[in-house]
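Reposting from the mailing list since nobody answered there.

I have sequence plus structure tokens for a pair of proteins and want to know whether others read the tokens the same way I do. The first protein:
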Amino acid sequence: MARRLFGTDGIRGRANQPPMTAETALHLGMAAGGYFTRGDHRHRVVIGKDTRLSGYMLEPALTAGFVAMGMDVTLLGPLPTPGVAMLTRSLRADLGVMISASHNPFEDNGIKLFGPDGYKLSDEIELAIEDRMRDAAEDGLAAPEKLGRAIRLEGSRERYIEALKATLPRGMTLSGLRIVVDCANGAAYGAAPRVLWELGADVVEIGTSPNGFNINAKCGSTAPEAMQAAVVEQGADLGIALDGDADRIVLADEHGELIDGDQMLALLAASWHGQGMLRGDGAVATIMSNLGLERHLESLGLRLHRTKVGDRYVVEQMRQSGHNLGGEQSGHLIMTDFATTGDGLLAGLQVLAVMRRQDRPLSEIGRAFTPLPQSLRNCRLNGGKPLEVDDVRRCIESATKELGSRGRILVRASGTEPVVRVMVEADDEQLLARTLEQVAETIERYA
């Protein structure tokens, strides 16, 4: 049976409209609580959130659902998604919940679930929870004397900060570095500047004044222009831009030039390989990663293993194959030696560690390969299903044939937004532009 609510990164939608309503959150809490209530011990769920106004609606609704099933709820407050995953494990919780729509605007929100091991739930478990929501979420309601309790954990941010600091090699500091950090007015607004400052850096803050409405608004990893400009104006050594829940990152070197997730993967893979830290025969990325990354790793005797789009699928492949480095071009980097999910700030610290070891600026080490020209276009849907239309299929087949060995095309429906994403990669930029326009126009005709 196909999933209806869960996409590639939890449940997501416009706040206070189906499915992102208090009612959905209540029933999700009941269904997930029932699924994860096993044994006679006192069950616990931890809940974190970003800074969206709608978090005040979803957090109590989820809490009510879990309490009704007899689960104790620990509220973490605003905390990055990787912090919630970390505390799920360290507090021995049965379940972790993050309320966030990641890089989306404040009007949207979402709910992500983590198992007791701190990893995102599998498709099978999410489907089982959906079935409970659809059939009989009320089954297993706790008796009055066995209802759960809710508490707010003081110091959750400090626990996450200390865990991050511990990932740097012993004795290494960031003393002497000036760093611009853009927290997107999101979940990392209190943690990221403190981590960098406590490690010795001179920190310039952007996007650390959330008001419930300004998350990801002209700031953060999806709009890094302010961070880039600040790096140049402040004479900083680099800039870090996180997204709303801080599980992805974009960097800028000392000249304000951007460095994406593919380049960070290349840098870390080479560095870890040289130190004997890289497990497996290379790294894991998605089908969206640039062909230049794959060729670069091959030149080092390493392989790039590809998965479908979504950091959860990268993590699943890493766990199956024993790799400890993976990620997405968009800036989700997963390092399973330190974390169970993508962590933007952790990735930034690991890049800083390479800079310290090599004593070189980011502009010299941050671009290990020359990427093939690549363009992405989002075709917004208006109720249609263009990928089921024969004209669209024939157009994609024709484009694939024309590209041949000179490039590739990927067309997929987004799992988080009502769009079809068209990505074209080719050595010839004219061929790239022509192919992208033809396919996108055909899709939009039936959108």
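The second protein, same order (residues first, tokens after):
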Amino acid sequence: MNIALRLAWRNLWRQPRRTWLTTGAMVFSNIILAFMVSLQFGMYDMMIDNTLAVFTSHVQIQAPGYKDEKKIRQSIPAAQSLAETVRDNLDELRVATRGIAFALASSEERSFGIQVVGIEPDHEPEVSSLPGLIKEGFYLAELESNEVIIGQVLARNLKVGLGDELTLLGSGRDGSFAAGIVTVRGIFDSGMPDIDRSYVQMPLKTFQDIFAMGDQAHEIVIRTPDLEKAADIKAKVRALLPAGSELVVYDWDELQPSLKQAIQADMASAWFMYGVLIILVAFSVLNTVLMSVLERTREFGIVMSLGLTPGRLGRLVFLETALMGALGFLIGTALGAALIVWVGENGFSYPGMDEMAERFNMPARIYPQLELMPLVLGPLIVFASTLVAALYPALRLHWLQPVQAMRAA
């Protein structure tokens, strides 16, 4: 073993209590950072999945300009046939077709503007969590029935219940007058007021008949088995589009840019708190290393008078700190990984999460995954901060005068 490394390791244990206390602070912070960052990434994945599951999903095929303008004329020709092609070629995907229009819904007493969505009852439950949020009645079952499901707030505003009729008035794709009478089959509660007050689903075939869509629709919605695969799936789906087609494929990041911005804002606030913890640990290391240097001032003066350069002494002090930081990194990361594995198997919950999960059709527990980057990111920053903290004590030796140092008590 290198003589400098042996000296650094020996010096580290001249004051074992102080070394263990400082190492313990690093271990504790590394466990907290490894676990919290992994938990945070797990929460983000769950938040993205649950937000996308209500309506957007992971990937969509649309007509050019539809994402921004939402015009009924911007539709996908032979939409169900294209959706079937995607299903046949990419077995791991869940695919559904939707048509979207705006109309006036009228009951016997009131009228409200709504968004009407035509769905495939056989495939919609595979890409959306909304079918699991029915609180009264049942979800749609037949492709050509004149039935709808509506939000709880809209049902209250229109003063309708199960079995009541609604009259829909709107404009068809060809500019014709669109009208239809439908029956309320189910009432859902998504927990999102904007959806609950203005969102109506009906079978796609009925939607196409009312709004003169023919065989066209507005969205082909695709759910991937893994969120991380969305970009790859997007490329594969684009390759399946008909030759010369102007259709556009979007992933969730493009469909929901505000979701990514919310995650980035939350991550920034979390890292502010993590930064406070890292700074406290860095000052703890600075205090330990500086005390170690000050109590060896006379010793340093003697070896400097014998010809040892301040640079080599500084490197020795820096190496001592690196060894202490590496010890804290290894122990903290190992214990953090063990905690993540245990929580990943048993799940993490907090008071009130069960009720919220039941209401929004979400998982009742968070299951963090043991991944390398979230595991080591925080501990690596702590390790780097310990090295930065050692700079001042190490550089202080360059100003040390051997004669004055040997006179120190």
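Reply #1 (J.P.):
I read it the same way you do. The first helix runs from residue 3 to 12.
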